[in-house]
Structure of GB1/RHD3-type G domain-containing protein:
Amino acid sequence: MSEFKGEPLQVITTTGTDKGNSTELVESALSRILLDKRVKNKKVVVVSVVGTFRKGKSFLLDFFLRYMYSNDKSNWLGDPNEPLTGFHWRGGADRDTTGIYMWSEPFLITIPSGEEVAVIFLDTQGSFDCRANMKQSATIFALSTMLSSKEIFNIKDNLQEDYLQHLQFFTEYGRIALESGYAQTPFQHLEFLIRDWAFAYEYPFGRKGGMDLLNKRLEVDDDTPKENVLLRSHIKSCFADLQCYLMPHPGLTVAGSPTFNGRLADIDTNFIDQLRDYVPSILSPESLTVKSINGQPVTCGELMEFFRAYMKIFQSDELPQPVSMYEATAEVNNLNACNRSRNLYVQEMNEVCGPRKAYVSNKVVDDAHQRCQEKALKEFRRSPKMGGEDLAEGYEKKLIQEIEELYMNYKMSNQNKNTVEHFKTPMVLVTILFLFYFLTGVLDAVGLSMISNLLLIPFWLLLTALGTWIFVRCTGSATEIGEQIDNVAQSLVDYVSYFSVLCSHLGGGVVCQMEEVGKEFLDEQELVLVFRGA
């Protein structure tokens, strides 16, 4: 077989493990492929392979390339001693692919309708790599799902529940990015490729055994837990077509030899037989699916724009931050502890100044707040929590802030119960009116009618203010005027209170001086009596 003409080009890079924008689009590489004049206006078929890292995704894609480059499709596997080339792959435990790679040469294939389409291949970074955070894994998986017309979910050993949960998580992340209101299912073809299948006696290798297994895994009955029913409903609603294929183990040489280079001679014949059946079922012209978005076929040039648009979404702050199962559990755990402590504060404060309690002094409210806050914080700190001290410290600060807001609400609610506060302004105005009325009567009685008449001016002004205040409170209009009258009344109360305190201090000083003088006088009288006795 001749050497491949193309090469893998990285079109999505991962730039770090921080929780910021950790993926970047390599437009120069992408435009070189998709904007080539041979394919720019042709409809595109996008085949991608996703899954956990170090499970043979790139290895599988290179067999796809071998099929596409072969001129003899009946013997496309070629020379059994030829090394496997194309997308870079290797054995071992550490990751090899980062970001997303695209094969640089699109394949022009005539499909049964007679139309020529461009077929491109995507190789993706493995999920749950120890050097990538959850946002990177979610972004890579979601991008691949959004951009592919045929996505292969590479799975090892069995179709377990955790794989379905991961698929739900990543596809939901992609569906949010696409926005709601889609007229059709958002994604096209998903194929579960289960590698190293060990239960061929139950479900035979190949597509039939795979579909029987898939239907078994996705079926629900009355005993199925509700969350599992929702999980299966979600997956079915996301993809227009679901398929499954069971592959045997490729052999011990593939799994354990550091010098294995992909030669068919080193691969188990059972695996080769299934490979000979599987690859054409994916890539033969009648099996190809043109990429469509919302029911409209997409060209290579248009796919370039979708790459740009989707990357902008994932690089923005519009999407929720994906977190790991542990992080999500730790946050919920701390949130529950925070809620319990806040509820304890509310319960304790309600015993002192709750909505069904009568008005109490501000000091009682303040003392209760200090006591209940300490009790709530003690409850929060003693609650078992996941996530470490840093996470707990953040939730404790949030708890203190919420308690402070509740405290202010309790103070305001308690103040509103004070009947005197409600009627402070009219009581002040009526009191002053009564004083003016009494004073004018006294002045008239002693013949000072001229001064009495002058006092009628502030008397009528106060009476007008009282009438205005009542009008504002009853109608709810001109509230600014009512607030000004309240402020004036409060100022008068503060003024009187100030002089009352001042007078009490002055009076106390006079009494003390009189006591000192009296004490000195008694001491002198006592001395006189002593001398007289002598």
